[in-house]
Write a structure and sequence with these properties.
The complex is a heterodimer of chains A (340) and B (291). Chain A has helices at 5-8, 16-22, 43-74, 92-99, 101-132, 139-151, 154-164, 170-177, 194-219, 223-231, 236-264, 268-282, 287-294, 301-331, and strands spanning 77-78, 87-88. Chain A is mostly helical and 340 residues long. Chain A folds into 2 domains: 1-36, no CATH class; 94-331, MetI-like fold (Orthogonal Bundle). In chain A, strands 1-2 form a two-stranded antiparallel ribbon. Chain B has a domain at 81-241 and 267-290: Orthogonal Bundle (MetI-like fold). The chains are: A mainly alpha (340), B mainly alpha (291).
Chain lengths: 340, 291
């Protein structure tokens, strides 16, 4: 910082460190050499912004945002999917949706899945994360292994589990070998049981993600807090209850948000395991499988799009309400505002 | 802290047991072991089941192979169908990854390092995409892709996959790019590089760790993707592996052993990628989730 730039620094916009990186050989830059912070309208900057962000914006608008508007439009028509839609039916599709008991059932199943996912996975994942947060041997290999179900595809999970859960499959066979034959039931087609089987599979696939997420949250809590509490004589459980869990709150609430949205949109696992038509009779249909079955597969694209709109609105309302009342105090809108 | 705790000899006895092994540690290992077993048991069932014969599976559904046979795996590996689907999945995965990284890096650079009026709005637009998985858009998306003439083409699945991967990508990359010190940018400016020059010479190499994370996430998501190919790819020649697994499972539903072999072979790439880059994937996912 002892070079000739010093006396001219008033005209140089760079910081002293920046100037020193540039080296002593630099003469005083002319004002034209600092184009990045122009006060006037900067054509070059605008051009760069458009060039760099244009492709992403176009692709995003075309394939994420535009389809939602397209669905809203098609949803007002009775339309078989070919040629321009001509038969305007107004809100007819929506009336049919809200009167259809099959849709009510699907909505109810989604409701069960939302609630049961939170209840089944949340406490267990917190307990496991607390357990694995201790200094135990092999923690890194454990972290890898519990994440495996999350990484393999829904098709593999669905194919594997439906083979295992067949009435003459590995699960029932195992129960009988262990003398628990009364537990060998018809996991997939009994409507009283199938939803629980689905919940077992969902929990198996996604609990690893919750545990890993909570572990990351736990590791960001300063150890000094629990050490200080320990010195004051707090027991392990007191520390977890009064220090760790409250500080894990933000992570828990974000996880719950992701879980709720995922449960509302559930499609792959149900469709793979129960196929196109069985999911309704087995009591595992969801709004998304209803949409596909009554929309594309039935050739009623107007109707399918109307169901998509309903699914969209339900998810949006829940997401916004959750953000407004639950997430806001944690993130101050980090998901939607982004500026930190 | 630790030295402070050791010092008082009388209180030390009481304090020492609290932070380290507060719990009967054998119990910890038992529970951890059980949990790991539950997580990988079904995966092992698929892999090991592929080494059995159908007769073995029928007689003893939950048994071990005796003897181990590799015919199922060999027959899958020797089939053109399997390799064609691997190739289709690989092409889709690679194109998706390249597209996501290129578009994502460029737009994240703008969001991270340009001051302009619409910056916040643009970020919100992309971040809002996080809330909506593809399920909501699939029906109109199918019509859009069909009208664009992209049915049964790799473009028909790659373009939407890029679009839907952008929100996560941007949320991971923007903090990375913001963290590049201003001094480096200013130094580059003094050396005569424009922002674009700075982008290619400094930003791309410096953000490599973030780029690897989003690249792997995009590749694995594309490799596993089911719903979009289900709608877009109707021609068996264009099937990717997930569709292939399902088609194989229903076509050879009596040949359970071969279905298991096919299924376990199809998960290998995702597992390899994951075990190689576990830290980055987990770090990226948890980082993205926490905003």
């Amino acid at each position: 910082m002892t070079h000739s730039l010093g006396e001219n620094s008033a005209t140089v916009t760079t910081s002293p460190e920046g100037a020193s990186v540039a080296g002593g050989g630099v003469q005083t830059p002319s004002p034209a050499r600092r184009p990045w912070r122009g006060r006037k309208f900067d054509w070059r900057k605008t051009f760069e912004i458009s060039l760099l962000s244009g492709p992403a914006i176009v692709v995003f608008l075309a394939f994420v945002i535009f389809p939602v508007f397209l669905a809203a439009y098609y949803g007002f028509f009775s339309w078989k999917g070919y040629g321009p839609p001509t038969e305007f039916v107004g809100l007819q599709n929506y009336l049919v949706i809200f009167r259809d008991s099959a849709f009510h059932e699907a909505l109810l199943h989604n409701g069960y899945i939302v609630v049961l996912s939170l209840i089944l996975q949340g406490p267990a994942a917190v307990a496991l994360a607390l357990l694995l947060n201790q200094r135990i041997r092999g923690r890194s290999i454990i972290r890898v292994l519990i994440f495996v179900p999350y990484v393999i595809s829904e098709v593999i999970v669905g194919t594997g589990w439906s083979l295992m859960l067949q009435t003459s499959g590995a699960v029932n066979d195992l129960f009988e070998k262990m003398g628990l034959g009364f537990l060998a039931v018809d996991w997939l087609s009994d409507p009283d049981i199938a939803l629980w089987s689905l919940m077992i599979i969902i929990s198996w696939k996604y609990i690893g993600f919750a545990v890993i997420l909570f572990l990351a949250g736990l590791q960001s809590i300063p150890e000094e807090l629990s050490e200080a509490a320990a010195i004051d004589g707090a027991s392990y459980w007191q520390i977890q209850r009064t220090i760790t869990l409250p500080l894990l709150g933000p992570t828990l609430r974000i996880w719950a948000f992701l879980s709720i949205i995922g449960s509302l949109q559930l499609f792959d696992l149900v469709y793979i395991i129960w196929g196109q038509y069985v999911s309704a009779t087995a009591g595992t249909s969801t709004m998304a499988t209803y949409m596909v079955l009554n929309g594309r597969l039935a050739g009623n694209f107007g109707y399918g799009n109307a169901v998509a709109v309903v699914l969209f609105v339900i998810s949006l309302v829940i997401a916004l309400v959750y953000q407004r009342y639950v997430l806001r105090r944690d993130t101050e809108g980090a998901l939607t505002e982004g500026k930190n | 802290m630790a030295t402070l705790l050791e010092a008082p000899t009388t209180a030390g006895q009481k304090l020492r047991r609290i932070p380290k092994v507060a719990w009967g540690s054998p119990m910890t290992y038992v529970i951890a072991f059980l949990f790991v077993g539950i997580c990988i048991g079904p995966v092992l069932y698929i892999i090991v089941g592929g080494f059995r014969t159908n007769a073995q599976i029928t007689v003893d559904p939950s048994g071990m192979p005796s003897p181990w046979v590799i015919d199922n795996y060999l027959s899958v590996l020797g089939s053109g169908v399997f390799w064609r689907q691997v190739a289709n999945s690989a092409v889709a995965g690679i194109l998706t990854t390249v597209g996501v990284v290129a578009l994502g890096l460029m737009v994240s650079f703008v969001l991270a390092r340009y001051d302009f009026k619409l910056n916040g709005a643009m970020y919100s637009l992309f971040a809002a995409g996080l809330m909506f998985p593809m399920t909501v858009a699939i029906t109109p998306l199918y019509i859009l892709i069909r009208d664009l003439g992209l049915m049964n083409t790799v473009g028909g699945i790659v373009l939407p996959q890029i679009a839907f991967a952008l929100p996560t990508t941007i949320i991971i990359l923007v903090p990375f790019l913001r963290a590049i010190p201003k001094e480096i940018e200013e130094a580059a400016a003094i050396d005569g590089a424009g922002r674009i020059g700075f982008f290619f010479r400094m930003v791309v190499p410096l953000s490599l760790p973030g780029v690897i994370t989003v690249g792997i996430l995009a590749f694995v998501a594309s490799w596993n993707s089911y719903m979009l190919p289900l709608f877009i790819l109707n021609d068996e020649l264009s099937y990717t592996l997930p569709l292939g697994v399902q088609a194989f499972a229903s076509q050879y539903s009596v040949d359970t052993a071969r279905v298991l072999a096919f299924t376990s072979l199809s998960m290998i790439p995702a597992l390899i990628f994951f075990s190689l880059f576990e830290r980055r994937i987990v770090g990226g996912l948890t980082g993205a989730v926490k905003g």
